[in-house]
From TrEMBL:
<protein>
    <submittedName>
        <fullName>VWA domain-containing protein</fullName>
    </submittedName>
</protein>
<keyword id="KW-1133">Transmembrane helix</keyword>
<feature type="transmembrane region" description="Helical">
    <location>
        <begin position="652"/>
        <end position="669"/>
    </location>
</feature>
<keyword id="KW-0812">Transmembrane</keyword>
<feature type="transmembrane region" description="Helical">
    <location>
        <begin position="6"/>
        <end position="24"/>
    </location>
</feature>
<feature type="transmembrane region" description="Helical">
    <location>
        <begin position="36"/>
        <end position="54"/>
    </location>
</feature>
<keyword id="KW-0472">Membrane</keyword>
Amino acid sequence: MPTSTILLIILVGLLALALSVFYYRIKAKSSGKNTILFAFFRFFTLFFIGLLLINPKFKSTETQLEKPNLVVIADNSSSIPFIDRDTLLKNTFSKLKADNDLLEKFDIGSYTFGKTINQANEVLFTDNRSDLETALASVKEIYRNQPSAVVVLSDGIQTYGNDYQYTKMGDNQHIFPLVVGDTLTKEDIRVDRVNVNKYAYHKNRFPVEVFVSYNGTSLISKEVIISKGRSTAAKQKVELSSQNSSAIVTFELPANSIGVSTYSAYIQTLEDEKNTRNNRKAFAVEVIDQKTKVLIVSDIKHPDIGALKKSIESSEQREVWLSDTSLRNIDLNDFNLVVLFQPNNRFKTVFEKADALKKNKLVIAGPKTDWRFLNRTQTNYQQQPTSQKEEVQPVLNINYNAFITDTDFSTYPPLQTTFGQLNFKVPHQVLLSQRIGSVDTENSLFATFEIDGRKEGVLSGEGLWKWRSQDFQNTGDFKQFDGFMAKVIQYLASSKKKNRLTVNYESFYYGNDDVTIEAQYFNESYEFDPRVGLSLAITDTISKQQRTIPFVLKNRTFEVDLSALPSSTYNFTVKVDGKNISRSGRFKILEFDVEKQFFTANGKKLGQLAESTEGSVFYEDQIDDMINQLKQDERFKTIQKSKEKVIPLINWKYLLFFIILSLSIEWFLRKYNGLI
């Protein structure tokens, strides 16, 4: 406490004493022998009030002991029981948490990991994926800047996410893997993966690449067989050895029937091969009758056209043709959608032909668009011609309901457009409006409408190539922009009428994929209605088992997760509660369990992980050695931490109590003595 504060407290004490004595000396004749007692209580009252006015600050030191952390993360994937190590891992998990010496030395946290990491008190082996890298990254974040010993109980086989081998932890975080499983390499032959396009076209042939590998020392010759149902579609011999341990076997298969065709790639087993589950891998191809054909018409060269073509053709279901306004060798009847890029008066014939055939259109306007021509050639929307340019930022309208998009437009650069208000003469929906500077406007940047049985979109800006480039800069790929364009093209190219209930799903999924079905429901005004309940009635066509699952609302989409379903073919119906509205469909889940493809633990990678974090790797017969090292490791010590607090006297609530008590006693004594 500063000297000045101490002097002020002494001064307040002397002043309180002087005032108390002075007051009761005047009253001495009536106070009698109790004068000193009255002055004493008055002194305390005045002194405490003075202290509150000075509000001195006191320092206090708190000491606490901080233990290091012992973080136990156990592999919760189905690969552990597959290699018959579930009991061992469970017992080790429990043993680490219950050891008294470890409990005394560490604060112990226990987790399990599969696709995600979760706090847990037991291991159930229910995950069909294992992502150790994400689990370690989470531990690093949770225990940031805290000394931690991280014990990993796993077979070291990662089937999802980034490679964990060189994961960087904090400076005082060290990993101690316990390798669960046999690390001795056994002779094994396997199908590693199958490369095949998702779609094929009817009466065409499609390529299939089968990647096979061999662990062993012999020279072997085996057949790789492609089967469909009970029949063999194709087969080839392959020779493998220790020097030539992998091969790619290529087939070409006919696409004879429309719909989803399921196949199996199989390599013949070895004699006494222990793990034969990895000798076979299922795959599927959806055979479609025709592509969605899109025609882009332009009389200028522009990078937007190339970006649009690449984006639209990112799906094999779509094909883009380019043409100038002469439409030489072009029959508009062959196309599902016509994109008119920066139209001018040379587009007159194109508009006439497209309108005569009731073709769906997407008009992309910009600074080179001739709005006088566009205003004359159609009457659905109008804009005052001007040569003034401006840059506009996209703003997503969350109430748009023609299709669903979750694209983050806030990171995209502005598009260039011509100054002016776009006025629609027909009912329409605005997906993107314009932000000019920091001001959000009601002017449309991208809108769609339906009229006379056809669909049309109007995009008022150029610079789409910048959006696609920005997408790659943000995420390392073009998926977000290409996904947005896919939904635009899918909606505009379709001649189907708008449904009040829309359902999105894939025709087939692989066994370890996330299987989800999305749905949206619109009221009679075609506005999204989040208040309704949706349910999914699903039937396994093989076992005939039926179940009903409710949808969960996420943002503006209803979603149901079916990832836990076993491989089979399923029929389903989505129903709206209390409404006579439903949609039905069918999908397949192909049999594939990635967790059962490996029979040998990867002790080498776990050892490198331990080495990179200055930890140690242990094996199944070294559990007690690991526990002893953790107990004796001098890097993990309890730290005594002192924390100094500065406490103002005004925060001490008891002082107010003493002031009231002192005044009350003084008052009652004077009252008792008849002085009041």
